[in-house]
Design brief:
Keywords: Signal. Residues 1-20 form the signal peptide. With 118 residues, the protein is of the alpha+beta class. The protein has helices at 3-17, 31-40, and strands at 25-27, 47-52, 61-64, 67-75, 82-88, 98-105, 110-117. It has a seven-stranded mixed beta sheet, sandwiched between helices. The longest helix has 15 residues, at 3-17. The model has no long low-confidence stretch (mean pLDDT 84).
Length: 118
């Protein structure tokens, strides 16, 4: 399943559960594209981030104006067939920032993370 289809499915699910307003989706197929879209996202509202699982393998960073965000994944201790995915914001940043996390099977190629304002 490609990222566009997964994004539409996620948008439909989110729109169906949120009566007021659908949650914006940040979709990136490369580190560069994800960085551009994530850094431009409104940090005051929830988002869903969708991207290739490979972006989380080498503990890369996304550098935004308010500091570096760390992308990584770890094996879930309670369920070793799953990975927990994270996009952690800088702790020293001023103002609002997004913190993202999600869970997916180890063999998943595309992952979706929930992002919330901190």
């Amino acid at each position: 399943m490609n990222l566009s289809v997964l994004g539409l499915i996620a948008a439909g699910m989110i729109a169906g559960t949120a009566a007021a307003q659908p949650v914006p989706i940040i979709e990136g197929s490369s580190h560069r594209e994800l960085q551009e879209k994530f850094c431009a996202a409104n940090p005051n509202i929830e988002h869903v981030l969708i991207g290739p699982a490979t972006l989380f393998v080498d503990s890369q960073q996304i550098i935004c104006d308010n500091g570096p965000y760390k992308l990584y994944r770890i094996v879930n201790a309670q369920d070793t067939d799953d990975f927990d995915y994270f996009l952690d914001p800088p702790f020293y940043a001023h103002g609002k920032r997004l913190g993202c996390d999600g869970k997916a099977g180890r063999s998943m190629r595309t992952v979706a993370l929930n992002c919330r304002p901190l």
